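Final paragraph of the annual report: two paired records, presented back to back.
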Amino acid sequence: MLENERYGEAIELLRFLLQCQGQNERNYEEWQALLEWLEAAFPSYSSQDVNDMKLEEESDEDETEITRRMVQDKLSQDAGYADKLLDTVMNGPLTEQTVLALEQLAYLDHPEVDEALKGWLQEQTLHPLLQFRVLQTLRRRGMSGPVTVPRGAEIVEVEIDQVPLNHADFPDAVLQILDRVGEKTEIHEPTLFYFAQELWTQFIMAIYGTTDYLSILDEEDSTLDIWAAALHDIVSESLKGIRDEEQIRSYYGITDTMRFRYEQAFRSLKQFVSAGVDEP
């Protein structure tokens, strides 16, 4: 957050962490010291929390129109602007600039962008989160129909006009899994739930359209419990350095007959975490 100058979000996170209980005392001292430094260095961010700041921002519709006008103005001033944005996306590392370039491409009225992005998506094996962002960009540009892309070891077909544009757009089964983890952790382990939200948001984008993703959509209670338990387990292990599998499985009623599917879900999450896949 600090590297990307997201000071307001960093302040909000530190305030949240300081309210959590059960952590090492040294952690609280470090968080408090960092929070005080941020509040002193960036008083405009500390004077109001992030929620208040969001209330003062323009509506999504206004932001969309402002972005559209800004992008079109830049294109009118620079005929090569579309090529520059495409170059940032296709040839640079996955950074905040990549995401910003994709956001601008979503509103760029230029005939070559659709085919350039779609062709690149189909022909190259890309970072799974970058793949998903490109799919979102294509949907925002008004494209529809199927596109076939390599996702991990699979080749999947995705309907562009069904790609979720935000977390709330995902099917109810995806959201229910996080709700179940929240029920088990929000009171006694709020820090764990915060990181579970972050991990699940990235993971579900990374596996969109794959066999794992489709398995979640059967909406059976056992499936939702299995994925919720696996998510709880992997985040707990990451934060504490030890795995408390038996206890966590008991929280969600994971029986021995469900054990194999549970281990498969845990392995998928583990591979994602081990790969160090982080969204900018």
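The closing record of the year follows.
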Amino acid sequence: MNDQKVLLHVVCDYAPAGMEFGEITTRLDHDLANPSNVRIHTTSVPSLDTMAVGFVTAQYALAPYNGRMVIYGNAAPRRSSDKATTNNIDHGIKYAKLKNGVEIINVNSEFAFGFMKDQIVEFYNIDCPNSGSQFRSRDFFPERVAKLINGDRSVLTEKLNIDDIPEVPNNLVAWTDGFGNIKTSMRLSDLQKLGFESGESVQVILNGVSMVGVVGVGGFSVDRGVLAVNIGSSGYDDPFIELFLRVHHISEQAAAVRFNYPEGGTPFELKKLAR
């Protein structure tokens, strides 16, 4: 029995504190060899938002942490076909281990592994039923997650090619936080390569809305009511750019409101303004 303490992040597109999280936690607790040594933390992402699952997974996985961390993520929108599926068959789950030792079991959907692609040292398929239940993430997946936490790697099958993981484009909405700030997949290095400088005005086009913003080093470096295109709080050594509209009261419209609540994966465009 493995007595090592484990932090297990469960990142799924279920309602916060909803029954689905409760059912999955129950299954995990049932199958873990030593459930008292596993601390489960659940994170809810928007429905069908594979971008958010990948973004949140990477933000957790690359954080400094002393101990064993495992992340189980699931958001599979079943977008590969508009046709009916046989026996609810869909995406399977894959296993990745990062350079820092963090282990990830994610449903193999669009952006699940892209944000940490350059950190992966092991990438495997997982032997797991991929059909036969509408709620695979309760009926099949937790048992495999528990096996891996228990130290049983027999569920890992063929080695996968890391190069086959799709790159994440740098012009997409990645995550909208609770304050209405829009985190994007564009990094500071991307912004610099595009030639934008701090204090420069820029046109932001997103979700059918155009706004003038100011490139800044932080959201509070601009005046109230001004859209900041600035270094965000995610992404570590090469932080992601976020769209931050400085407001003082909840009644004011934050960036997410102004841009009509863009979904994860929505493209945006930055344009230089004539001087």
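The chain has a mean pLDDT of 88. This concludes the annual technical report; the extension proposal builds directly on these records.
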